[in-house]
Amino acid sequence: MVLTQSLKHGSILHDFLCALPKCEHHIHIEGTLDPELLFTLAERNSVQLPLDDPAFESSTALKARYSVFENLDDFLHYYFIGFSVLLTEADFEALTYAYLERAHAQNVHHLEVFFDPQVHMERGISYSTVMSGLSAAKARAAAELPDLSVMFIPCLVRHLPIPSALNMLAEVVAAGHFEDGTVAGFGMSSTEKNMHPTMFTSVYDSAREAGVRNLTAHFGEEGPAEYVSSAITHLGVGRIDHGRRAAEDPALLDHLAKNSIMLTLCPISNVALRGIAEIEQLPIREFLERGVRFSLNSDDPAYFGGHVLDCYCAVQDAFNLSVGEWETIAKGAIDGSWCSSERKQQLSLKVDEAVRRQRMMIPM
Ligand code: HPA
Ligand code: ZN
């Protein structure tokens, strides 16, 4: 990956970042569908890709188109076309397992994975088909990928009507999947412009009434800091996905720090979708200095060309962080996870060990 080769300061810490036990909380499983697999599945499942867009002439052309996204909505157009090739439980299982394996190879030890059941349901693929595929991949990972904890988070999508979101939520509740841990919480994604959080209070109220405790939402990716504060106030979320624009409001930063509300930052995604021109523009130092907890995540790696380790290396390249600062980031990501306190303790000891080894090698 080019990013790791272009490290300005960070190559000395590259091995450390690779070994550092990582948590990933912001990865859309449908965003791991790379162009080659998209074409393979389209052929296998006899799905006609758009004929009127030259990007779909070949996987190479599609990859080239992915490198020039103009903004979030431009990306989402292609992202949702990708959904059309996923039809069977086996498709979802294969896609999910491939990602779990890849993340595991980068020393990710805890994963919280988004998926968009509402969009699949609207195109005639049942919630149970999707969820069974994801769960089968998790079961296989439990047998084959040591010490990886995996959770799933269904997201409502903002571009579809509220009744469709309520319908999806009702289906997950009826399946008993919040209660039995098949899914770990509830989130919200898709287009953000003109999507004020208060438009979605009925869905989040319903989730809370159904006993869902872990709530999150994508805000502050393109939208203003006010969307972030409003999501906290009106939707009752305890986590914000992206949230980079929260830095525009110092009082909000204090609130995030005081209430341990984690931001799941996605540095490579932000550059790919032109929210920022370069990673140096992410407010990483402000977040660290003000005690705002955050994790680093790949978002949609098949579309943005960077996996989780690339995100860590790119941040190191941009900010030249110390081992101690990485320890703070890694511990914050553990504390902000939705796993048990016992699991957090295990993960924390792993981070201690990686830091100890690094300090033994290069005291700092
Ligand atoms: N933002 C909003 N919706 C999304 C994203 C994102 O980064 N990725 C997949 N759906
Ligand atoms: Zn996202």
TrEMBL record:
GO terms for cellular component: cytosol; nucleus. GO terms for molecular function: adenine deaminase activity; zinc ion binding. PROSITE patterns: A_DEAMINASE. Binds 1 zinc ion per subunit. Residues 21-353 form the Adenosine deaminase domain. Signal peptide: none annotated. Substrate binds at residue 300. Zn(2+) binds at residues 26, 28, 218, 299. It is found in: Cytoplasm; Nucleus. GO terms for biological process: adenine catabolic process; hypoxanthine salvage; nucleotide metabolic process; purine ribonucleoside monophosphate biosynthetic process. Its cofactor is Zn(2+). It comes from the Eukaryota. Its main location: cytoplasm. The active site is at 221 (proton donor). The record marks 242 as: Important for catalytic activity. Keywords: Cytoplasm, Hydrolase, Metal-binding, Nucleotide metabolism, Nucleus, Zinc. Its EC number is 3.5.4.2. It catalyses: adenine + H2O + H(+) = hypoxanthine + NH4(+). Belongs to the metallo-dependent hydrolases superfamily. Adenosine and AMP deaminases family. Adenine deaminase type 2 subfamily. Catalyzes the hydrolytic deamination of adenine to hypoxanthine. Plays an important role in the purine salvage pathway and in nitrogen catabolism. This is Adenine deaminase. It comes from Stachybotrys elegans.
